[in-house]
Model the fold of this input.
Amino acid sequence: MIAELKTIIKPYVQDQEAFGNLDEDTDFINDLKVNSANLVDIILDIEDKYDIEIDNESMEKMLTVRAALEVVNKKLGHSYDSPQE
Done:
């Protein structure tokens, strides 16, 4: 799912070097330099891709790759087990 997420966020990334090193701890705003308007675009793209609706409370949590994966998996009814655990 990280590969799918990378495809979604790639057009919005300002820091390509950080994008190349993207992992679960990558922060969309601080690491990838995605501005807040584009972060909303990313969330809308995720909703379209997975046919889910992400509420405002969940959106506010989606600041890192891990948080985004957790929210998406929860909405899809899957549990998310980090590969680092």
Q: What stands out?
A: The first helix runs from residue 2 to 9. The chain has five helices and no strands. The chain has a mean pLDDT of 92. The chain has one domain: 2-76.
